[in-house]
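Quick illustration, no need to memorize.
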Amino acid sequence: GDACRGGLVTKQDRIEASTEELEAFCQRMRERVLKDDDYELAAVLAETLIFMKGALEEKRISINRLLDMIFGSSGTEKSRKIMERIKGMAAAERKKGKKKAKGHGRNGHEEYTGAARTRVPLEGFSPGMACPDCHKGKVYTFSEYSPVLRITGQAPIQAKVWELERYRCNLCSKVFTAKLPPEAGDKKYDEAAGAMVANLKYGYGVPFNRLEQIQEAQGVPLPASTQWEIAAEVAESALPAFQELRREAAQSEVVHNDDTTMKVLDLMPQAPATEPEAEEETTAPAEPEGEKKKGKKERTGVFTSAVVAVSGERKIAIFHTGREHAGESLAGVLKERTVSANPIQMCDGLSRNLPPEFKTILANCLTHGRRKFVEVAEAFPEQCLYVIGILKDVYHHDAIAREKKLSPEERLAFHQKKSKPLMDTLHEWLTAQFAEKKAEPNSSLGKAIFYMLKHWTALTLFLKVPGAPLDNNLAERVLKRAILHRKNSYYYKTKTGAAVGDLFMSLIQTCRLCGANSIEYLTELQRHAAEVAADPKKWMPWNYREALAAKARDGPKG
């Protein structure tokens, strides 16, 4: 090639050499009879070989990244699996001593908390009666019932038809109709139906059309258009809670943020008409081509951003879809902040993740830095395993701090004692790779090293500030909810549809982070819409049960 990204081979260095000349050069090398200009040829050949090796490594890494984008990641970022892959361990060796993963196998009856339970009496028995078998002893109630589980299939949204008996007078023709029983309710679609539709669509990625097909197959038709009307009505009842959720998130001590691409048809660029309408005479004349003002290119992308706010054990997820990047969406949340102290912000190293109008204590994601070494581990096994090994120990220390439930200050002291020496050693090693020319700056390994060094202060904030997280994994996991919706529904049709999706994803994901039942929560928000609108602070996912209990104690008013 005429140029090398590392600066080794340039157009000026290029030497034209035919196959015959190269064969003659090799013969002179063998006979150790070299000409004065043979050194230049040897240097260019060596530099070209180095360039080609780096180019092939970069190409292989790029292909692996492309495969992960198309088919999904193989999930092999754990240190043990990376080492196994690099060392080429046999499958039998990998399986040896492997523990069974949690969550696999049969569930006991106690796991079915939502199942209806019926006590079945043993006919012909009563406490104290004679034993019908031995006829000597007496039987008494055993301490435990013997559970038998039965599982049935049914439509997600069920229906019940109340057939009211009617009579008509044969003289005056007046019609008499039976009264609807109280359990029938006064709504065609009750609160639980609305909560289920919203959760299936925005919590579990079931598109309206797919749910329509399921319902129709079960004999309980529910058109997609009707599902949208139901969801929009639920969103109206839940809006005060969502607005309060944003206010609560703005006051948090730590905020994570990230974004992903999304499609909103109303926001997509429209193709120009084939025959544009003539402009009115009052329109100003167009500027000459050479006199057009230079300005910023109009942003055409659409993104869904996730902000995860953390205060102590409480976690809040806020979604926003629009043209704003993650940093701008975070700024929209922080506008409602009344706390004077600046929050700790965890994100990756992209500048678009920073809120333009607010100052934060910036922390960068250590997992992002580690991932760059994971991607090039096969090309540079020794160096990458060294980095991954050190970071593995740091994460182990953080796991111990979580297990011991250390306070932020205690966790900081623990990391300074255990992790700081490791990170200092890693920084010295990273710096030495460039200083001692052990790594080419423009190679894939060099880029990974450069990223770590460039963001070192933000990557190691957990060693300086109490409560600073190590990575942005929390926001990435939350953002998968929007990615699941995009994979199944492909897009939002309108900005209103996107806003409704953001509302439901925020409430549903916050329920999961708080350990609340999102279907029950949305149901109660509808049943107590007036109370929620009056005082939404009492109806958050982490305290709405207390509001329900207080209402039950007070009883119906009036």
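The mean pLDDT is 84.
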